Amino acid sequence: MQRLTVITAGQSPRQDMIDEILAHLPDDMQVTEIGALDELTPAEILELEPHADEAGIATTLKDGSIVAISESWLRQKILELCEGRGKTINDLTVIASTGVFDLGTTNPYVIHAQNALDKFTESVLIAGQKIGQIRPLKGQLTRGKEVRDSRIKSVYAPAYNQDALLHAAKQLRDRDLIVLNSMGYDAQVINLIREASGRPVVQMRRVIAGTVAKMIKQARSTSSGADLLEGSALSLRLEDLTKREHQVFELLIKGLANKEIAAELGISPRTVEIHRARMLAKMGVSTGSELMRLIVRNISNARI
């Protein structure tokens, strides 16, 4: 089962956003949504208003209202929520906020919406096109490296203000492409901007969906442990493994510990220990380290 965790800047659920993203992904997705503000009271959320020198982040609450919160607080909260997530392709995690910069290091299968946007923007600029961006907060107009690039024009228009959106669309009629720079802009906003500007419109939800789909496709096409052993005497030992033992084998050679394997397969750590011991015995080794040495030797020498 392919798991996808979506971490939003506001409160969950954001079903409209999740549905739009899933519409472009494989059907076998198990989705978990976490909102950075889920456990906070209205009074506590009010205390998170951005400081005078902060751009702030616009996000949505359960009741549909939109608030601005401190980017520095949100950055730290999202890092906490990402802890332990995104270690394997089967545990993909999306940080669904485009205003959060400089998150630092996370696990390899954590997708940063801002990073995905930066890569998309760079590819469009390389193609020689001019970009228009619509942002939900005025303070965000001065954020990011794109403000120094004359090929990019950013304007302000919150998702709930139709007059502001129409005005923004008219300002960007000279652009080749318009990007809606927030996960909060839905399909209705796309249609409004496209009609008013006459330009192609790209939604961040679609960019994220494309990034997730690409990562899944690339991962599924890479070699498994069985592929590494194909054609060797050691590969015959794999045929003696049960389905569960084979799953443990694949996750073990990816570097996962017993607890991580248990979480990945939805079983207890003790059950993993049992399957792991049986798998190692069938492979003719006593430890995971010995198994890895056998595989490394096999890659360099076709016979073991």
| Strand runs, count | 10
Identify the CATH architecture of the largest domain: 3-Layer(aba) Sandwich
Structure class:
alpha/beta
Helix content: 40-55%
Bin the strand percentage. 15-25%
What form results from the Cα inertia axes?
A: elongated
Count of helical regions:
13
Number of domain modules: 2
Mind telling me the C-alpha Rg?
23 Å
Order of helices and strands: EHEHEEHEEHEEHEHEHHHHHHH
Q: Strands of the largest sheet, in order across it?
A: 2-1-5-6
Q: Round the mean pLDDT to the nearest integer and report it.
A: 85
Oligomer: single chain
Low-confidence stretches: none
Termini separation comes to: 34 Å
CATH topology of the largest domain: Rossmann fold
The major beta sheet can be summarized as:
4 strands, parallel
Give the CATH level 1 class of the largest domain.
Answer: Alpha Beta
